[in-house]
């Protein structure tokens, strides 16, 4: 433990909770920063701002929601659900967590956006659309280990499990930066668009906007990713 504390105090190492396993990983800070920069360059998903974009995004969200309410496209309670109070909004920030279970220990980007102006809209859309997706994708979705066992039992009962049957898994690289940004309809499209387009954050004291896909860390992005893959 003292050795770990000494490394961290020197500032040449970084301690992060790992992806999925929940254990902690100690890595070389320079290597960590190099991988983070390589990810940004590879995906091209982020552009830098000259100044803090928080209040610009807040004004856009306020204008959109008030416009939808004035046209009676949304109800008052829906407006209240989606509109964050000005004194509570904060700029999101980007950080990376290591994936030591994969070769080379790549990094996963997470945008912490709990108090972004778009967070209320993101949560509202997720609650609205996710149940619809879950209903249509239920037959091809495994929820947990127990569900997996039940599915295998049914698979066997129906005679699908043969001696030559192969069970496999696959991983999709950079799924969250593959999401299309222009697929929704009318009011939902407008709400979804502002959640995706106005994804701004701070990283290493610099301001950025994500211009490809959606942010891992936003409630609605997971539903969009599932819809994109199911389609």
Q: State the secondary-structure class.
A: alpha+beta
- Biggest β-sheet, characterized? 5 strands, mixed
- Domains (count): 1
- Determine the oligomeric state from the structure: single chain
What are the low-pLDDT stretches, counting only 5+ consecutive residues below 50? none
The gyration radius over C-alpha positions equals 21 Å
* Run of helices and strands: HEEHEHHEEHHHEEH
DSSP strand tally: 7
Q: Determine the N-to-C terminus distance.
A: 49 Å
Strand order of the largest sheet: 3-7-6-4-5
Instruction: Please indicate the percent range of residues in DSSP E strands (runs of 2 or more).
Output: 15-25%
Helix content: 40-55%
Assign an overall shape: flat
- Count the helices. How many? 8
Q: Determine the mean pLDDT.
A: 82
């Amino acid at each position: 433990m003292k050795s770990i504390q000494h490394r961290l105090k020197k500032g040449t190492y970084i301690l992060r909770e790992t992806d999925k396993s929940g254990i902690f990983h100690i890595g070389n800070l320079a290597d960590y920063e190099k991988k983070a920069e390589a990810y940004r360059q590879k995906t091209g998903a982020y552009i830098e701002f000259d100044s803090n974009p928080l209040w610009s995004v807040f004004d856009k969200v306020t204008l959109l929601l008030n416009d939808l309410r004035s046209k009676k496209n949304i109800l008052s309670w829906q407006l209240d659900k989606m509109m964050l109070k000005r004194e509570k909004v904060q700029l999101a920030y980007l950080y990376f967590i290591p994936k030591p279970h994969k070769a080379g220990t790549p990094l996963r980007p997470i945008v912490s956006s709990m108090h972004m102006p778009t967070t209320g809209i993101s949560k509202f859309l997720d609650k609205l659309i996710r149940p619809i997706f879950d209903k249509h994708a239920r037959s091809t979705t495994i929820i947990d280990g127990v569900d997996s066992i039940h599915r295998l039992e049914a698979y066997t009962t129906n005679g699908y499990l043969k001696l030559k049957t192969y069970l496999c898994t696959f991983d999709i690289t950079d799924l969250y930066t593959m999401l299309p940004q222009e697929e929704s309809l009318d009011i939902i499209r407008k709400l979804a668009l502002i959640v995706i387009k106005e994804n701004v954050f701070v990283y290493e004291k610099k301001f950025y906007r994500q211009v490809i896909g959606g942010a891992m860390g936003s409630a609605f992005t997971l539903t969009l990713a599932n819809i994109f893959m199911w389609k």
